[in-house]
Amino acid sequence: MIYFDHNATAPVMREAREAWLHVTEHLDGNPSSMHRAGSRAAVALATAREKLAALLGCHPLDLIWTSGATEANNMVLHHFARKLGAAGEVWVSAIEHPCVDDSSKHYFGKRAKTIPVTRDGVVDLDWLTAELADARPGLVAIMAANNETGVIQPWREAMAICHSYKVPFFTDAVQFIGKMPCKGLGDCDYVSGAAHKFGGPRGVGFLKIPHRSQLTPLLHGGKQEGGRRAGTENVATIAALVAALEARERQMARNEHLLRKLWRDNFEAQFLRALPGASIIGQNVPRLWNTVSALMPEGDRKLQWVIRLDKAGFAVSTGSACTTGKEEPSHVLSAMGYKSAHAVRAVRMSAGWETTEADWDALLKAVVKVHAEMQHKG
Ligand code: PLP
């Protein structure tokens, strides 16, 4: 199976496995325990915190380890719901992952206002600037890169606009971290990340919060993480998260992502030539180097594509949640102005660091073959 669904989850890389194994075999104390085994685990935890803080550009104590980004994102919205009270408002981009979108609606209902995006799937900064001239939300949430389209959001500019009005800025950087250099993210007030998108294990992530600020905990029952998140820290997965991110940052320092972008761009050019009527979503704006979000030719259904490519040995995705087996149009594509008739043709192919040029070539051949089969069957 050639795997093109890295935006869903990525395989665990060697560096992460080794870090996990080292902690599991040698540092099996609870970091909250007073004995030496506990202290050794606590040192490993503190070291991981320092390393991640150095990569993001923040203070180590601004970081809270979590079970993943869903928890981290819920923590932010929960905190602001408590802090802002019944009149508080949050502004959330129209293309957020459901764990930001749904939790903002859960905690704020109609007081969660939607920030629109352009046809290319980029958050509308003119709208943000104009609205902030008249009103002040308690929080603005704009992701760093979109999981379905790969479109990189202008999070630096959005943060600067928010800060000029003293409005806290939150970015879900889950898809950005480990694919693009994460330097500067520490300047955002709130940042979430998850290891399993860049070669770390599943079930571990983090939340960065403003320096010396309080966070109303979501989980109670322990004083871990400065009383901000109860529960024994999983030192092995945390060490693996950091090892994976450090390895990815080294690869980016060697510009290894630029070559991968070239392979993806070549694939797209050949794909568009081979499949008349197909198009690439967000092709005109900066995107992650690994993602292809394609609208397949008229009449093609995305689930058919996923199933047929799976049979041919390729794991791709519909891009949006498809838990019921029904082809629901994605909220991301709807926000970009695509009608449901178009949105149900969207297929996402997301490569990883280990994907080769030969893998892209093989995918192209399989896509052309499946397309011919589907045309033949009508
Ligand atoms: N945010 C984005 C942008 C994502 O793509 C995902 C996972 O798909 C999440 C949050 C949720 O992350 P986790 O699986 O760590 O809960």
Verbal overview:
The protein is an alpha/beta fold and 378 residues long. The chain is 43% helix and 12% strand. It contains 13 helices and twelve strands. The protein has helices at 14-26, 36-56, 69-84, 98-108, 125-132, 155-164, 224-227, 235-253, 256-274, 302-311, 331-335, 340-343, 357-377; strands at residues 2-3, 63-66, 90-93, 112-115, 139-141, 169-172, 190-194, 205-208, 279-280, 291-295, 314-315, 346-350. The strands form three sheets. A seven-stranded mixed beta sheet has the order 2-8-7-6-5-3-4, sandwiched between helices. Strands 9-10-12 form a three-stranded antiparallel beta sheet. The chain has a two-stranded parallel ribbon with strand order 1-11. Helix 5 (125-132) runs parallel beside helix 6 (155-164). The longest helix is centred in the first third of the chain and has 21 residues, at 36-56. It is globular and about 70 Å long. The two termini are 27 Å apart. The mean pLDDT is 95. Bound molecules: pyridoxal-5'-phosphate. Pyridoxal-5'-phosphate binds next to helix 3.
